[in-house]
Each structure stands twice: as C-alpha cells, then as structure tokens.
Amino acid sequence: MRPFAVITGASRGIGAEYARALAAQGYDLLLIARDAARMDQLAAELSGRHRIAVECEVLDLAEPEAAHRLFAAARTRRQAVDLLVNNAGFGLFGEFVDLPMARIQAMLRLHVNTVVESIRLFLPDMVERRSGAIINVASTAGFMPVAYIAEYAATKAFLITFSEALAEEVRSSGIRVQVCCPGPTVTDFHHTAGLRPNSPFKAQSAAEVAAVSLAALDPGPTMVTTNWSGTLTAWLSRCTPRTILARKAAQWMRRPR
Ligand SMILES: NC(=O)c1ccc[n+]([C@@H]2O[C@H](COP(=O)([O-])OP(=O)(O)OC[C@H]3O[C@@H](n4cnc5c(N)ncnc54)[C@H](OP(=O)(O)O)[C@@H]3O)[C@@H](O)[C@H]2O)c1
After folding, report:
1. Total structural domains in the chain?
2. Does any ligand 1 atom lie closer than 6 A to the CB of residue 132?
3. Of ligand 1's atoms, which has the minimum distance to the CA of residue 91?
4. Which of 189, 191, 208, 257 to mutate to test the pocket of ligand 1 (most atoms within 8 A of CB)?
5. CA distance 84 to 217
C-alpha cells in the first residue's frame, strides 16, 4: 500500500508544494484547507501526473472542533497516517492593541490549539505502529520576539519549543518530529498578513522550502531552517541578548514598507 500523508493549508503556497513533492514520492494525499476549488484543481493536477490517490476535505482549522474533524476526515480514508504536515497558517501585521480580537483568536487556535490537539489524536497510532512522521511549519520569526507581529512570532516560538520537546519523547518509538522554519517565502502569506516583505534576504520559493524540509526528514535535525539566511538568523538569535533582539526586530518592523 502507498504511504499516506495529510497536509493542512494545502490549497496554495508551501502546503501545495509539500503536496507536489510528496505526490512525486508516491504518497496518497489528503489535502485540507478552506478553498475547495483550489484544492480540487491541485488534486486533479497531481492525480493526473502521478499514480496516486488525492482527496480533499474543506475544513476551517481555526474552529474549536477542527482537530477532531481533521482526525475523522483522515480516519475515514485510511487507518494509518504516515506523515502529518501541520502547515496551515497566516500572518497578522499591526499594533497589537489595534488588531481585531477575532483574528487573534483564530491565529491562536490555528497555530497552537489545532496543531497540538491534532498531534494528540494522530500520535498514539503512530507510536503503536512505531512508525510515522510529523512536520510542523513554524517560521524564523519564532526565533525571537517580533513587535507588530507579536502573536504570530509567539505562536511560532511555541511550535518550535513544543516540537523539539515532543521529538525527544517519541524518538525511541521511531517517530520523527520536525519543525520547519522558513524565512521569507514567495506565497500569498505577506498579502494576507497586510505586510510588504522588506527582508534584506531574497525570498525563497515555496517549492524549495518543501524540498529542503522533506529531504531533512529522515534522518535529520528536529529544527530545520530552509536556507543559509534562516540558519544565520537562528544562530544570531541564540547569541544575541533577548532585549537587543526585541529592540532591533521592532526597529526593523517599523521601517517603511
Ligand atoms: N511565506 C512566508 O514568508 C512564510 C515564512 C515562514 C513561515 N511561513 C508559514 O508557512 C505556512 C504556510 O504559509 P504560506 O506562506 O504557504 O501562505 P499562504 O500561501 O497564504 O497559504 C496558507 C495556507 O494556509 C491555509 N489556511 C489559512 N487559514 C486556514 C484555516 N483557518 N483553516 C484551514 N486552512 C487555512 C490556506 O488555505 P485556505 O485559505 O484555502 O483555507 C493556505 O492553504 C504558514 O504556517 C506560515 O506561517 C510562511
């Protein structure tokens, strides 16, 4: 039987590229997002090009019961999930006091609650089978406190710490947990966030992010940066005092964009 992967946020951007890369590796896929038309288009492209099965499930993963719906959607297709990619996410740029509460709550549910609850639901079966892998898509923003995207950076920091700790808990069971930390990547992300990219580094392609992440999955480090500027950011964030990091990041975010 072909391996089976579940990918959230698979309608476009990095998630769609995980789908393309995994389809080429012979995975059957379950794509999850809200945009049915885009997922159907991607499913048709992938099942036309590869001898695999691709199914789609329309889900708003920021809703309170989303993890249970995601788990049920996967279970009705296949008993065992070989790879879970928690990629769905969005950015939110602005002063915290001005941001709409509903958007902040949606971000916390999407990036934190749904990811943790989904892993709690999928992991027991992986542990029992002593096989499986989980990729959580975080960000280089999670390496430091970043003003004006404060809650975004904090949710990604949570994902990094959580993934690193969980990876150690399940290592002896043969489960791989990776936290993928891309830097600026060419997708709809910045437009959705209301943020014009002004990084000094050239933005990466979403296909490259997915390729680097998957190549590092087995064997590889738990925390994966996807290009040299991400690796440099990780290193700088470790050796710079937090107060200076926070101040510099805020100055950077205040620059005209
Ligand atoms: N692009 C970057 O520069 C960058 C850098 C670092 C990390 N990241 C991370 O990479 C991940 C993917 O982002 P991207 O760059 O590929 O952005 P994107 O092109 O905007 O794609 C975001 C994906 O998440 C899905 N999504 C958003 N809200 C959702 C919800 N409530 N329920 C279900 N799906 C939802 C979207 O699907 P629908 O709209 O169809 O629901 C879409 O498929 C995110 O976690 C982001 O934080 C991006």
Report:
1. 1
2. no
3. 47
4. 189
5. 12
CB 213 within 8 A of CB 180: yes
34 lines ligand 1 (CB under 6 A): yes
Classify strands 133-137 and 176-181 as parallel, antiparallel or unpaired.
parallel
CATH number of the domain within which 107 lies: 3.40.50.720
Closest protein CA for atom 34 of ligand 1:
33
Compute the distance between CA of residue 55 and CA of residue 176 in angstroms, rounded to an integer.
24
- Tell me the one-letter amino acid at 210: A
pLDDT in tens, the chain (257 residues): 999 999 999 999 999 999 999 999 999 999 999 999 999 999 999 999 999 999 999 999 999 999 999 999 999 999 999 999 999 999 999 999 999 999 999 999 999 999 999 999 999 999 999 999 999 999 999 999 999 999 999 999 999 999 999 999 999 999 999 999 999 999 999 999 988 767 777 899 999 999 999 999 988 899 999 999 999 999 999 999 999 999 999 999 987 66
Radius of gyration of the chain (CA): 18
Candidate of 7, 8, 12 to mutate for ligand 1, largest count of ligand atoms within 8 Å of Cβ? 12
Say yes or no: CB of residue 188 within 6 Å of ligand 1: yes
Quick check: pTM over 0.85? yes
Instruction: Find residue 33's DSSP bridge partners.
Output: 58
Report the catalytic residues.
152, 156
Owning domain of residue 158 = 4-254
